[in-house]
Amino acid sequence: MIWYLLYPFRGTAEAPVLAETHPLRTAFTRYGRYAASHVVTTLLVSVAVAAILIYPFPFLYTTDFTNGASPLPEHAWTDTLPLDDKNRVEPDVIMRSVWVHGNYFQALNRDVLLSALQLQDELLGPTVDFNPRCLTVDRSEIINATTTDLTPTQRDAYHVINGLTNESWFFQSPLQYWSCSSDNIERDDDIIATANEKKTQPTSVNVTLRHSIVFSGKRFQDRQLVAVDALVITLVHRRDSPVGRMWQERVEALKHNTADNWDIFEYSPNGKTSELYEFQFRPMSSQDVFLLGLAYSLVLVYFLISLSKLRAVKSKVGLMVTVIAQIVLAIFSSFTICAIFKIDLSRIPRLGYPVVIFSMSLENIFRLINSVILTPSEDSTSNRIGYAFGETGHIALVSVAQNLLILYGLSRVVSPGVSAFCTFAAIALVFDFFYLSTFFLSVLSVDVRRTELSDALAKASFRTRRSASDIQSRQTWMDAMLQGRIAMSTRIAGTIVMVGFVLIAQWHFFEHESVMRILSRIIRVSSKHKDLSPSSALTDVHQGRSPASWLGLQDHETARELIHVIKPDAHSYIARVFHPTIFVLTGSDRNVSSNEPWFPPAVYDFIRHQSAPFVITVIVIAAAVRLLMNYLLWDELAESSRATGANHESLLLVRTLSRGHTLDVAMLSACSDGHLVSVGLDRIVRVWDLKAGGESYTLGEDIDTAMELFPVLAICIDEDTHWLALLTSDKVLLWNLAELRWGPAIWVETDRHKPEAFFFVNDEATAVPPLILIRRDGFLTELRTDQLEPVSYMLTKESAIASVGSLAEKGESSSYSLEISSTTLTRKGFPAQVVVSTRDGQVLAASQEGSSWTSEVVNVGISRERELVSIQALPELGFFLIIRSRTVDLVDSLTLKAIYTFKVDPIQPKSIKCFHSRPRRMRCGSVALWSFTLAYLNTYTRDLVVQTYSPQNEGESLCFCDPTSPTRKTCCPWQRAKESRRVIKDPGLWDALPSGIMVGVRRKSGQKLRTDGHPAHQSLQPLNGLRRRHNVPQTANANGQIAQDNWEVWMFSHFGKQETWETLPLCPKVEDDGHLYVNSLGPMVRVGRASLAVGLSNVIKVIMVGNERFETGDDSQPGDGMPALSSRRRKGPSTLRGKHAVHCGHC
């Protein structure tokens, strides 16, 4: 809510984002990372705290108001409110009382009881076996009676049991336990036991003689009364009652006539003899039930709707149980704390407590979940949780602090019962934040670590959020609200529910008065309540409890019974309560023999009788949770411990696949399930299984065809059927990676140009999917196992093919091609389509029609003379890019028309890569994105340029609609897209993972400079044959030269406000890698969703970013599939200069 209040000053209602170096954010991030890395420890702490606080709950609360435990809330509004005399309210009844003391906390002594009985009889007349019901009364006797000389019959005639009039009266006394009989008191051998047995005894008007109304200063043990400081005898009468006048006159007489037997004190704070109080017991009405039911329904509906919108959560029932469990733990923990510190929560209906905490708790829960979803899925679980908690922790803390301040302010101006509710809500907020930081955080990290949730998170789109440095135009709060740019989220809903409930609760106690009257009374009630100190002003008497605080302890059941007697059809009554007259038996020792206990008696009873079971229960629960977590997460915890043990802070992990080749790796191809195929100059084709830990086997070593595998011109893998295709000079060899068997060979024409594209296409009618081979001379060849001869088609005769883009929709086709390579476009209901560019700058779109192919010229943009044009496909969008040196055209593959042209720096040929958020379909039918990124090398500086496009306004999406057609409110045309640019110096060999994380390998910077400012040239070891290529670890020498194998891996991610840069040595232990000396890297290929494989001479380095599970069917955006690459280049000039992916010249 505070961010909405600050909107006129900040220009936005969004919570501020702290810099990643801010100490508070750093602390939250470190804690979140630790909690996610030590799930069991964090969960055990939260469970142990919850068990410690929840186990005592049934022992500290009770529905019996006489046993020293705290009362549970009922379904009623109850309170005792002091009123101001200026209100001139006519009281319904008048209360007068005397307090009888003996020795300190020995009021149940027999002598004190007998003396109190004599005092009671002197005030009221004989009360033994008191039965005021009169069958017949002589009215003349009542009329002629004097005030001080009322006979018992005349006195009883005015009793309320004989009819409620303005002269009615009744009294309450602990002596009624013994029927006001001195003989019964004398014969009682166990007075304390009698007081406990008779605690539910009713009077003649059905008012229960509870300990709370007949005793003051009570001590309990084992839920039984053990000591009392004062006996309270109370007279309740109407305004014109003669019994009330008689009581007043006889009290004045006793002050002068019994000075020898009693020490009499007047309790009159502030010089007043009486106060006005309102006692309320208001059961929940049908309107209250309806409003609370409506509040619960709205909160539940909001919770379910918000839960359904979480794209990355499969176990929504589990999440719901976790949220409810957190809120229940916070509520019960708060109840326990309130019971320990004697905070009376019985004045507000019990149904009001959960809804307020539930609405306030959802704010922080959903903010944390959404923040986790927005983190990159390739990151480790601990880093994702740490970043999300660091990003949202301070907001949650500020929200809690804000609500605590609001509750504190409200507690100062509301009635005592509502003030107690404010205290409870404040404690619950603190516990809710604690359980969010421990219980919910650990459970959420477990769910994120689970395979199914990780997959869902990996495939969920993320929204690029505004950068903190973005300049936004100021506008009024009302304009932003009308335009829908200020979301009425739980950030303000929780606070509104909290404040609204407090005001409604306060209104219940003053519902019959005007608003101004209520506001004025609120202030007066507040100040009046603060004067009710539990200590007495009579320092000589040392009372265990003051009369004012004793009055505030009257339970709601007593109020209900008194209301039924005094105003049967009402829910409250106003009483003028006269301050009691204190009678202390002469000679009594009133020195304090023991201090007032800090906590309620139930706490000490719990410590005495439940300590051992309590400790055992907490230990058993903690052990059970530990065993359960070990059983449920044994594999995840083992994997997590290995990952964090190796490098706790790093997202990058480098694994080495060695001893597979004796010479350089020339080609690589991979699929998402972890299969990696490498082709080496040693004429070995090796298949690696990364999911199985790097196990490998040599292809063809078990048969006499090893020499027939070479030369290998291209390779590709089909994701769905797990077929590996090897293109040689005269045939295509097929190997099934799943069944480990050879398939039928397909013969191809010999002595043709080198392949430009080689990939599988989808065909469910055949066991082995057909392949497409496109050569540089413009021929397209279909290769099928069910055809004896391949079928070729001429795409172009005028010029050689320079580039072919590859675009395949998931589930329709799978393609793996050369990087200078091919793009197929297949959609449901559409034939296969190939987009190619020629060396003279022409772009052709070829589509399959029946058994033949037709091509069409794409007239988009103008190419300069001798300008190389390349193609980049956008697999999930149905679009492709036409890339020139200074422009990039975004073209629809169906209409072959450009919808937008990007302005770029000079692009190094065929260096561009594109990635984007997951597409979604707009109502207008077009595809839309939340972010779109182009990454390419600058031709002159060779720096990596990253251009990211996002919607201009929150709530919009980048729309791939026709620019000439009208757009919807939520569509952001490309002309209005917001562009952000980043530059990475010296990127080396790099690639983009499906989620947009860029990973590269380069020489480490920081070489020693010469005096002229240029880096010193490295001296190379003389090489005499391949035997001398074995690497010897080197360090920097005295001349400043550095080691030859000084390679490093870098990673860069930019997800909205988060930017991550990290580096790691490619060869931390060079002597263990066993690789040959090399001054350039080999081929690079993507493996799975979060891994890259790169050739380093004769070994393969697998670079993993975060968690990689090598699951089949992972999206491989951008461009479904990666090419089989060769690291060898042709000698001499070429139009493909600077490109690392060409045909292997050594095969």
Break the fold down into its secondary structure elements and pairings.
Blueprint: H1 2-5, H2 7-10, H3 23-37, H4 39-54, H5 57-60, E1 61-62, E2 70-71, E3 76-83, E4 93-101, H6 110-124, H7 139-144, H8 152-157, E5 169-172, H9 182-187, H10 191-197, H11 211-214, E6 215-221, E7 224-237, H12 242-257, E8 262-266, E9 274-283, H13 286-308, H14 316-340, H15 352-374, H16 381-411, H17 416-449, H18 451-459, H19 477-482, H20 490-509, H21 515-530, H22 547-552, H23 556-566, E10 572-578, E11 581-585, H24 601-632, H25 634-646, E12 652-657, E13 665-670, E14 675-680, E15 685-689, E16 695-698, E17 714-717, E18 723-727, E19 731-736, E20 741-742, E21 746-747, E22 755-760, E23 771-775, E24 779-783, E25 791-794, E26 801-805, E27 824-825, E28 833-838, E29 843-849, E30 852-857, E31 870-874, E32 879-883, E33 887-892, E34 898-903, E35 913-916, E36 920-921, E37 927-929, E38 932-937, E39 944-950, E40 957-959, E41 971-972, E42 978-984, E43 989-992, E44 998-1003, E45 1047-1055, E46 1058-1065, H26 1070-1073, E47 1084-1087, E48 1091-1096, E49 1099-1105, E50 1125-1126
Parallel strand pairs: 1-2, 4-10, 4-11, 40-41
Antiparallel strand pairs: 3-9, 4-7, 5-7, 6-7, 8-11, 9-10, 12-49, 13-14, 13-50, 14-15, 15-16, 17-18, 18-19, 19-20, 19-21, 22-23, 23-24, 24-25, 26-28, 27-28, 28-29, 29-30, 31-32, 32-33, 33-34, 35-38, 36-37, 37-40, 38-39, 39-42, 43-44, 44-45, 45-46, 47-48, 48-49
